[in-house]
Write a structure and sequence with these properties.
39% of the residues lie in helices and 20% in strands. It is an alpha/beta fold. The radius of gyration is 16 Å and the shape is globular. The model has no long low-confidence stretch (mean pLDDT 98). The structure holds NADP nicotinamide-adenine-dinucleotide phosphate.
């Protein structure tokens, strides 16, 4: 089994790699430190990545930038960060990656708790999460060749709490291992069109 992990050097990506490394050949991609360089905000870069990587059994995304700021200071330009990266970046991974995914393969994207349990400054992130969530649900019934598609929606992670915890008052953080297990279920299981909530 060959798994392409986009965002493989991040907190979630690293945990997914660790969880799956004994079960598959893992190909790690990100903008800077991974073996395969890709910027998901660029269609050309995504095309180049898939050309380089070739056929895979599973596409995993643990990448997607968003900008946190109050609604009054959220400009159209700042909102584009989440649109171009977390929303369209991940959707373009699916659209451009489909021909490279083997029959009965799988796709797993990332969303997050803010689409369900909002915080101030989180509207742009919530928009991207909700868009990816809806796309996955609808795309699942239109997937060719038995390919499955799911998303994982984590709450704030224990591992990220030091950096972002002050924005998430009252949230109970979860260990990243639980998120990696949700990806594992999506990759090795039978579900499609599902959101794996890790709350
Ligand atoms: N951490 C949490 O508590 C938490 C909770 C819920 C949801 N999430 C969501 O989960 C996702 C990953 O979070 P994380 O905490 O693991 O983030 P992270 O530690 O910052 O890692 C992000 C990963 O994605 C890559 N990346 C970022 N932008 C990219 C781009 N444009 N193209 C290709 N690769 C890119 C990064 O590498 P390069 O910088 O080298 O590209 C890195 O490998 C985010 O969308 C986040 O909103 C996180």
């Amino acid at each position: 089994m060959r798994i392409l992990v986009v965002g493989a050097t991040g907190t979630i990506g690293k945990a997914v790699v660790e969880e799956m490394k004994d079960r598959a050949e893992i190909i790690c991609a990100s903008r800077s430190k991974a073996d395969i360089k890709v910027d998901i905000t660029s269609v050309e870069s995504i095309k180049q990545m898939f050309k380089e990587v070739g056929e895979i059994d599973a596409l995993v995304s643990a990448a997607g930038g968003v900008h946190y700021t109050s609604l009054e200071t959220l400009t159209p330009e700042l909102n584009q960060i989440a649109v171009q990266s977390k929303l369209l970046g991940q959707i373009n991974l699916v659209l451009l990656g489909l021909p490279y995914i083997k029959d009965n393969g799988s796709i797993t994207l990332i969303t997050g708790v803010l689409m369900d349990d909002p915080i101030k400054t989180g509207a742009s992130a919530a928009m991207a999460n909700g868009g990816v969530h809806a796309f996955v649900k609808a795309a699942a019934i239109d997937m060719p060749r038995g390919i499955r598609i799911n998303s994982v929606s984590p709450t704030i992670l224990e591992e990220s709490f030091e950096d972002y915890g002050s924005m998430f008052e009252g949230f109970e953080p979860v260990p990243v291992k639980r998120v990696a297990l949700a990806y594992k279920k999506s990759i090795l299981g039978a579900h499609t069109g599902k959101t794996f909530y890790v709350y």
